[in-house]
Amino acid sequence: RRMFPTFQVKIFGMDPMADYMLLMDFVPVDDKRYRQVTPAVLGAAGAGGYAFHSSSWLVAGKADPATPGRVHYHPDSPAKGAQWMKQIVSFDKLKLTNNLLDDNGHIILNSMHRYQPRFHVVYVDPRKDSEKYAEENFKTFVFEETRFTAVTAYQNHRITQLKIASNPFAKGFRDCDPED
Amino acid sequence: RRMFPTFQVKIFGMDPMADYMLLMDFVPVDDKRYRQVTPAVLGAAGAGGYAFHSSSWLVAGKADPATPGRVHYHPDSPAKGAQWMKQIVSFDKLKLTNNLLDDNGHIILNSMHRYQPRFHVVYVDPRKDSEKYAEENFKTFVFEETRFTAVTAYQNHRITQLKIASNPFAKGFRDCDPED
DNA sequence: CCCTTTTCACCTAGGTGGTAAGAT
DNA sequence: ATCTTACCACCTAGGTGAAAAGGG
Hints:
Chains A, B: Keywords: Developmental protein, DNA-binding, Nucleus, Transcription, Transcription regulation. The structure is a homodimer. By secondary structure, chain A is mainly beta. The first copy, chain A, is built from three helices and twelve strands, in the order βββαβββαββββββα. Chain A has helices at about 40, 80-85, 155-165, and strands spanning about 10, 20-30, 30-35, 55-60, 70-75, 80, 90, 95, 105-110, 115-125, 140, 150. In chain A, the strands form four sheets. In chain A, strands 2, 5, 6, 10, 11 and 12 form a six-stranded antiparallel β-sheet that branches. The longest helix of chain A is centred in the last third of the chain and has 10 residues, at about 155-165. Chain A starts with 7 loop residues before the first strand and ends in a 14-residue tail after the last helix. Mean pLDDT of chain A is about 90; it is low at about 45-50. The chains hardly touch. The structure holds a DNA duplex (24 and 24 nucleotides).
């Protein structure tokens, strides 16, 4: 499924006439797997059936092994610096999956693990032997506030409500004004 | 609205590494306006209410004045020759209107007039004074079998049925298998 | 009378969380 | 007990011809 909210960046300082590729990948934040705090531990009884727990996570052991991470190219790549800079760039086509055998090119993550999205800008070097300069032709940006725990189902009521309130595709689950 | 069927081309012979713009425009086939044959002229009574007539057109006078024709750039332009050639290029974003004040960039046509779609390939010349070579840097293709009469409502039952049978968006009006 | 405009139900295409059943 | 999967109703977004209403 898509990431929500979508990762978006405003870009400055490119050469307007040069070509760039924009891409994202995801790296593990740590070497752990997490699990939800149980009601027993919290001393709170579940409401029966499907009960959300707390907003806290417990370390549940060592991370599952991960295959080399996939990369998502922004579908407008390559494009001129002027094009990238003239408006906010939105990675709304990026999709996540936990299916290790995925063949749709989606980003594969382990559920219940924490990830750091990374944003990469690659300058398309017009020189003949551009491979030689690969090291100096890209720049990586990390925004720590975009870290998240991957899940297959929401573990926190307030996250669910936030998404229902702010994602237009979930409008069917709203029961009051989205302005709240 | 969209053209249907969509204008599609298969392209050969480009320089795979060079940039090209692909575009379309529409030129009048003649200087006439047309009207439908009436039932009286045909000797056939209309079925009452909304009756389709024949498949023939009568000349109804001189063409209405037309503003300079708009041009539709294929939204993937500019792109490399290799990109254009590797699959059929489809102009399915092209839209037609009879609204002379249209500000959506759609192609403006006069209803009840005949048009010839034209397809243009423009080579993006990397030379500094490329404007000088504009004349030699494009090529126009005309397929006479794509001529049509612009209308605001269908004038022929068989055209309606053909479109209902072959346009997926009109599936709601089908009453039998689309294979027919 | 002939053509145009507006609105509508009905599609395609695809992104939501809910829910129940499945897996470990 | 905890997490995952598959399916669903319900959305967004937008392309159909039908039909009724409008215009000259």
